[in-house]
Amino acid sequence: MSDQSSVGKPVSRLEGRLKVTGAAKYAAEYDAPNLLYGYVINSTITKGKITSIDTSAATAVEGVVAVFSHENRPELPWLDIKYADMDAPPGTVFKPLYDNEIKYNGQPIALLVANDFETARYASTLVRFEYEEEFFETCLDNNLEKGRDAKKGIATLLKPPPPAPTGNFEKAFENSAVKHTAEYLHSTEHHNPMELFATTTVYEGNGKLTIFDKTQGTINNQLYVANAFGLSYKNVRVIAPFVGGTFGSGLRPQHQLFLCVMAALELKRNVRVTLDRKQMFTFGHRPQTYQKLRFSTDENGSITAMNHLAIGETSQFEDYAESVVTWSHKLYPAANTLLEYKLAPLDLPSPLDMRAPGGCTAMHAIECMMDELSYKLKMDPLELRLRNYSEIDPSTGKSFTSKELKQCYLKAAERFGWKDRNPEPGSMTRGNKLVGYGMATGIWDAYQFPSRIEAIITKEGKLIINNAVTDIGTGTFTVMTQVAADALGLPLEDVTFNYGDSQKPFSMFQGGSAIAASTASAIIIAARALKKKLLKKAKAISNSPLKAAAEDDVMFKNGTIRLKKDPMSVVSFQEIVASNNGRPVRTVNMGMPHAFKLRKYTKATHSAAFVEVEVDKELKTIAVTRAVSAVAAGKILNPKTARSQITGSMVWGISKALHEETILDEKLGKYINTNLAEYHIPVHADVNELDVIFADEPDELINEAGVKGVGEIGLVAMPAAIANAIFHATGKRINKLPVHFDELL
Amino acid sequence: MPIVKLNINQQTYELDVLPWVSLLDAIRERLLLTGTKKGCDHGQCGACTVICDDKRILSCMTLAVMKNGAAITTIEGIAEGDELHPLQKAFIEHDAFQCGYCTPGQICSAIGLLTEGKAKTREEVKELMSGNLCRCGANANIIDAIMEVKEGGSREQF
Q: What is the C-alpha to C-alpha distance for residues A572 and A38, in angstroms, rounded to an integer?
């Protein structure tokens, strides 16, 4: 490690200048000659069939080029597998414009293409559709009894079904000293990144396309386009260096990509399709989920039995499942468990992973349940967590690769001032405000995906790292440059990380908080191979001062290889490349999770959130006045960008608990608040003091980088901590999120 | 079609645009100044904020033809050559963005806010910046960056 090591330092984002000057280009911002604009037309009914389409008025408008619908779309593959992306749940994938069937309100049913955006938008309103409507079901509450087990498929690997029951739940619950039963619900949520979903397709001719797309996975979308349109992989290039937020919505190729590519291929023209904000509500969402929990403890607060039932909604065509009921037993030991997860299919679009999918749903219920138990036991809520603390994973008996949750609890409680809390609800006040303190625990998986890295030393002695991964605002570009610089002993400015391009070596989509671990580990592996190769070539140079050097004898520093014992014996990277006939020295390596070694361990990140709320005594308006989150997530590569991931997630927690919800009109079967004025997210005035602590959590086992990922964990504990604080302030338990202030009146 | 004369970032453009073209679409699609963002097209998110005759306006709620002869500054015109505006520096230093999509609007809006001079306290700055949404949750860092510039210019730590 060189003395200029950068991992662990709060390096500012390397693309910062591009983002603050407007030079960073997003998917809809690439120019192409004679560009056409596509506008998506959506179904206005919820279920049924299109019986006729009249495009005459639309095509009569000057500037309209084409209207694509199921009636005139090009011949497309009929096999579902051709449309299946890497994140497709079990079932039958949705195929845009496939036939006349309407499966959900807002379904894309046509694409109008015109010479300019305004004409496309206007003419799209002139296309007339006749429908035959059918009876539909969109309300989860009315359809809970339809809940059934989720189908299994490839996605089951990341989201395993609930474990088998242990002990005898009913008997143990019945006989326990303290018990509580409660139901929890949260509303539908839509990702709503600030950037609208958009694709610009450049038609290069000869079956070749360059696609600027909004995505979390350039290769995922490359494969999807090639398969669906019968193109060769090498002829489809998907580019996405700047992505204006996704939060899960870009894990799957969305319909604007399909429609844009279809139009480009048919018209042999460059085409752009951008969804409008209302249309951002016509694909994936966080599914409404009903939960019923029954937990019991002995008189000392040790948990004796846990029953967690969750019923989530899915579409009629795909079984989108989440890990909801798997968390309680990963956190708390109990001899008797009954964990059940069901899906109720409704006439809605398929749900889609949204930041901390399943985890933040589950932990809201579990950690509010723990708060209820603490009151029944007359025990401090933190004390109850510590009473049930487990150093191993109780659900499997395996050790954690590392678990510093206790450190999180204690450090955050200290920083927050938890000891000043009077447990009596409504007892703490500030002027005309009731003050409440609440806390909760967070847990999230620590995934790692395969990742392939190309590492090159150029004739200038600089390092180039190539990988297809995106940077959706997480800081990937900056952090991976830091990792690569340290791995080769170079200053940051001598490293170029090329990313966001499907032509670069393989990366999975950016999700699940997995990418920091996946890409950093692969870079470290590639750097090792590159160093070995560089040393070998350095030794081969005639009169090389490193001739007799073994790997352990040398150090890599500032673009040179030096003998540790004699730093004046040196060969520079430039000399090595020169001796290689000027050809850059290159390696390509795969980073893989250590599945065999890690089969005996559970991998997880943990957190503890402590929250203060103020509730107006008369109006009952609620504000989160301050919050402290302590996070244990292995090594923190860049405390500045990692902290932003956590504070960003904390804002998401405030949003989930108090603001955001998509409201469904069950009579119409459609979402009705499909705009940013009525779909509330926290504004600047809603965000107050947010404090982040990173626990010291070295993890030698988990991967080469010791990294676990911080994209989701900051959200998981927040909603329950806020709901618990509201109870402490007001004495009222509101188990449906978001909490509306009128429910406190 | 009407000819609209727009002075953008001290450069004059003459544009043939129909009356239904928003200032935002004229800037992004006709002039290819894509730093100004479209997040909602309904005046609900603030991503399209530009500075027009020294005032912050929502370019999506403005038709291009309404601004004939106006002087407009977009995010591309905020820096002086290579020298970033103090707010731009402060945004980088405070990590006041993640995905970067709301950033141009936040910066233009903050410049407008400082020019207005109404906001005296942090709370007032938060309130008067609340028309600019940030979905990444960089809110606190954005306000930190604005407060630093408001309270005495940028620090020189780059």
A: 53
Q: Are strands A622-632 and A604-616 parallel, antiparallel or unpaired?
A: antiparallel
Rounded CA gap, A198 and A258, in Å?
A: 11
Contact state of B92 with A20 under an 8 Å Cβ cutoff: yes
- Ordered domains of chain B (ranges, CATH): 3-77 (3.10.20.30), 86-150 (1.10.150.120)
Tell me if B107 and A20 make a contact (CB, 8 A cut-off): yes
* Closest residue by Cα to residue A196 from A277, A308, A281: A277
The pLDDT confidence band at residue B1, using thresholds 50, 70 and 90, is low
Long-range contacts of A155-159 (CB under 8 A, 24+ apart): A155/A87, A155/A88, A155/A89, A155/A90, A155/A321, A156/A90, A156/A321, A158/A447, A158/A512, A159/A321, A159/A322, A159/A323, A159/A358
Contacts of A474 (CB under 8 A, 6+ apart): A510, A515, A516, A641, A645, A711, B98
Per-residue pLDDT, B157 = 33
Show the CA angle centred on residue B116, arms to residues B110 and B119, nearest 5°: 75
User: How many other CB atoms are found less than 10 A from the CB of residue A261?
Assistant: 26
Helix, coil or strand: residue A454:
strand
Query: Tens of pLDDT along A3-49?
Result: 579 999 999 999 999 999 999 999 999 999 999 999 999 999 999 99
* Tens-digit pLDDT profile for residues B141-158: 999 999 999 998 543 333
- A677 reaches B (C-beta below 8 A): yes
What pLDDT, on the 0 to 100 scale, is given for residue B130? 98
- Whether the complex's predicted ipTM is more than 0.95 is answered with yes
Q: Average the pLDDT over A609-634 and give the result.
A: 98
Query: Catalytic pick from A575, A660, A712, A743?
Result: A712
Residue of B nearest to A689 (CA): B140
In this prediction, residue A79 carries a pLDDT of 76
How far does Cα A682 stand from its chain's mean position? 19
- Count of residues making up chain A: 745
Residue A174, burial from CB neighbour count under 10 angstroms (0-12, 13-18, 19+): exposed
Give chain A's domains with CATH numbers: 16-22+449-592 (3.30.365.10), 31-135+193-276 (3.90.1170.50), 143-189+286-447+599-744 (3.30.365.10)
Over pLDDT 90: what percentage of chain B?
93
What value does the mean pLDDT of chain A take? 97
Could you give the count of Cα atoms lying within 13 Å of A211 in the half-sphere of its Cβ? 38
Q: Give the confidence band of A708 by pLDDT, cuts at 50, 70, 90.
A: very high
Strands B71-73 and B3-8: parallel
Pairing of strands B11-16, B3-8: antiparallel
Count of alpha carbons within 13 Å of A404, Cβ hemisphere only?
Answer: 18
Q: What span, in angstroms and rounded, lies between the C-alpha atoms of B142 and A717?
A: 24
- Minimal Cβ distance to A21: which of B75, B123, B131: B75
Q: Is the dihedral of CA A138, A144, A146, A151 positive or negative?
A: positive
Contact at CB, A647 and B36, closer than 8 angstroms:
no
